Predict the structure.
Amino acid sequence: MDEKWVRMVTAQTPTNIAVIKYWGKRDETLILPVNDSISVTLDPAHLCTTTTVAVSPAFDQDRMWLNGKEISLSGGRFQNCLREIRARACDIEDEEKGIKISKEDLGKMHLHIASYNNFPTAAGLASSAAGFACLVFSLAKLMNAKEDNSELSAIARQGSGSACRSLFGGFVKWIMGKADDGRDSLAVQLVDEKHWEDLVIIIAVVSSRQKETSSTSGMRESVETSLLLQHRAKEVVPKRIVKMEEAIQKRDFASFSQLTCTDSNQFHAVCLDTCPPIFYMNDTSHRIISCVEKWNRSEETPQVAYTFDAGPNAVLISHNRKAAVQLLQKLLYYFPPDSNTDLNSYVIGDKSILKDAGIEELKDVEALPAPPEIKDAPRFRGDVSYFICTRPGRGPVLLADESQALLNPVTGLPK
């Protein structure tokens, strides 16, 4: 056998945003949560991780590159995922390369991993969720593991809790489980991305800087010090999960909006109830909430739901395209770009919504009327870095086109 061969797989996995939040672990090592959670998967065309994994007898150590920079794989979470997938490797026969690899040999070989996020890392946009989900999914395909995506989600969970929910598209539930070994703490799909395809999602990226308090340390401090977290996990979330599942199945946006906003607010109340208090939102976050609340109250039914993860960025879910267009107009009025900003880099993702909003140039933003629900509405220029327009999306997929791979197929090194 030619010892210079490289077997390689490339996958793409979306990120997700929780509408019923995961916050707090009952087991730090296995990453077992204190409550169930529900998320919506975002369109990977706009927010995703692409990962290429390669195995070769020529590699002398495990190596990983994230966004072009080599990083250490010594962390326990990476090692947990690698160990779990290696243990599930199966025999491989690759006719194209003319190689046969036993599962024993495959489990011993070193790996090269290259991963790229098309959105800011560690800024509250669940980059670790997409990253670990993509790592586990691509490694499972590379090593011919037979586990389904729910079983893989229990492995991805050990890298980043929210990662388990990125193994599916649409709306996804992470079941907290009861077993001490975590075997029943996994994700299941509630509905696919086509079930509620009227929804349009706009993310206001308030800051792409790394968070002052990481989710990991923030959760630990909340579990140790917040009485509100204990009450939320035991008394509030179980009932809220049932109501949210029903709202999603019935496409009941009024209930969905009320549950989503309330749960987001309670999550951040838990952060404030932590000692010392954790501040993930900022003044711009609060202004966006005020904008949405006043608009929703001025209408007969809610038009938009807001939710904030562990960061200042607003995720705004509109019940249809018309509401999303109105929302974008309001957001651009309140938070116009600087005069030297390119509109095409200020609104990214699904840019067609700009045309629907009648906005083609910066002068169209300046000409927007003040929202009628607020008299003498102020403008906060420069407070938002950019907006991402997206929608509910599909789960992970393999990318067959070799040009999309991040590693060289001959050397196994970054291109």
Residues 405 and 411 are 13 Å apart (CA to CA). DSSP finds twelve helices and 19 strands in the chain. The chain has a mean pLDDT of 94. The two ends are 26 Å apart (CA to CA).
